Amino acid sequence: xxxxxxLEVGDLDLTASPVRYPYNLxxxxxxxxxxxxxxxxxxxxxxRDSTYSKTIVxxxxxxxxxxxxxxxxxxxxxxxxxxNLKTSARYYVNEVxxxxxxxxxxxxxxxxxxxxxxxxxxCSLIGRDKNxxxxxxxxxxxxxxxxxxNHTLTYSSGLVNPSIGTDEYCYPFIDYGLSGGxxxxxxxxxxxxxxxxxxxxxxxFEDAGYQTSSNYLASTYAQSxxxxxVNAGALQLEQTDVDNAEIYVGRLTTHTTNxxxxxxxxxxxxxIGFAVPFNNDSTSPFRDVGANYNTGTFEFTTPIAAxxxxxxxxxxxxxxxxxxxxxxxxxxFTVYTVLQQYISSVWTNILVTxxxxxxxxxxGNTFSTICNHPGAAFAAGxxxxxxxxxxxxxxxxxxxxxxxxxxxxxxFLLKSGTTWHSYIYDPRVAYGSTVYxxxxxxxxxxxxxxxxxxxxxxxxxxxxQSDGVTYKIEPRDSFYDFTSDPLDWTSKLDTSKEIEVxxxxxxxxxxLVFDFKADEDYYNKIYQEEFKxxxxxxxxxxxxxxxxxxxxxxxxxSPTPVxxxxxxxIVAPRFFTKDNGVVQPIECNIRxxxxxxxxxxxxxxxxQQGSAAVAVYSSTYPFAGMINDPVNPTLxxxxxxxxxxxxNFGGQTxxxxxxxxxxxxxxxxxxxxxxSKLVVAYFNLNELDIHQLSFRSVIFVDGTYYLLNKILxxxxxxxxxxxxxxxxxxxxxxxxPADVEVGGGQNRIANTNETxxxxxxxxxxxxTNNINLGENSLIIGDNNxxxxxxxxx
Length: 793
Description:
By secondary structure, the chain is mainly beta.
């Protein structure tokens, strides 16, 4: 066969005059190419090294001289070519593109003989296969912008019952250690959104310029997996929202209100309440960044729903203007400082404080009032103001005789130092304020680690297609194409070379260990302390007596044991810890959960949080966990069957449909079968065979069907046989899920000395293997069970 190769450099440049077309350069030697293909590239695509560099010598042809613009002549000035810049390059063999990258001129070798000049251009070809995992290597999940999904925290049935495969996020029930999660009532504002895993995957591919082709990603199973918010505590506002909602206003000058007295013994004074004229919001130290205060009406309007404090201090003085002939006076005033809210078109007092002021002289009656609201959740658009009023009496004497004639008044002075400070005291997102989705993304998680851990969890094979931008993604057992016609390589087999047959040649371990990452939340911690392993751990040993290697498959995700609430039927993840029995929110490691939809719960009340609590669910809740159902699960995101569960229902079951059994057991049974073989032989493959090659294809040789394992040292420029490894698989049995007992039948569906609500607020237990679902109950001993209070009271 004739091998035709060419090196094309440069791109079409229509702006040049004359128009520049790509150049075909010659080279003195064929490029040193040795290409390896391995099933390991699709098992572990992140480990593929796709960068390379080659040095070539380009002779001084007419086309080469034009491309380099005769740069060998020291007196020539180039117009387009710049040796400091890379120029695109492509290498073809029989018009099949083998290499794409750039060419860099390193140096010019110039030999001057009697009448001729011989020139060679020494160049470096630098390239990299287009590879998703290389392109995202330094990117993090937080580089994905989800701000388009920012939304108002208001209840919607679609958020707890989303359209799987369409909606990008949902609100599962997860106890973050907040007030609503450990009582009869639980609150919408204590939940947080979780983004579906498929959307993360889609965005990683799209943002890097790739796409997927996958039946797996289109499945209901894959589209039901969520990545929850693992930050500690409730959703948080943006700092800019907090800053823009703050006001600090006051007075720099004195404001005077005069009130006439009514004569008598004593004289009476009633100063009608008025809005405190905080008239400055811009002179330092006063500020109103968000322009939420009106210096004309003295009103503050809340810009967002949030938890607000309102603190006011009035620096006051009462100056008494006595009637004529007064020689002495004495009296008392009560001053009321009031925080008012505009409710139903009426200014309504929501906080009243009073100050008693004794007076004995016309002047010098100074005092301060304080009116500090303890803080509460208020909706956006609520109006507030402070008002002040005073009532009092004064006895005026002329010697010892009371004065009842004439006129008297008081001047009520609001002096410099009168201030009002309103601010968000708790940065939690309140019902009705904005949820910023970027804040819900797990932090410090590299995209490549995220994808590779999903690959390991599901034993996915990623195969890059010939277009360079599409990845075929399927679990190993459905990756291979057994429905299409196999590739018949019988005629390509080089029978003149030795054929090696290696029994169980693909087996490189005796022990296979699957592990999640340990975490410090309450239930993970007690499980790890009891069993000395992480929840969902699995170990598999083969019966090969010659291989002693242990192979570990570890992922970045931590497991999530779920637990039941004692006086409710809710089973849920619990992202908290305990300090001396007191529940504390905790930041957790990234989790991977299955959204199981709405499940029945006993005596739970789903409420909104705001100025009024409104019940919206009273018998169901949105379940998420490593299983799809807490009563009769049919799948488990763990690798192995747990040793203990932290919930219990009458008639409940557990499943063995975990990630090892569902994704790895068939593969392990096939490569450990004593009749499986690895065949090493040589085949006459051409560039089209390689270009069209897919590891999904079944290979047929001399009546036997094989799976492709490796292609070694393929050189498209050489007409020589290529070394190939083929795996003769003994098809293992398909896994059939079944119900199983937890902990090897050791009756471990229980809590170990742990109340079912998990927060130490109700029952307690002393001993081992006790199930305490009751309130205000105590178990002493082993293997006891107390049911929960059916009334929920």
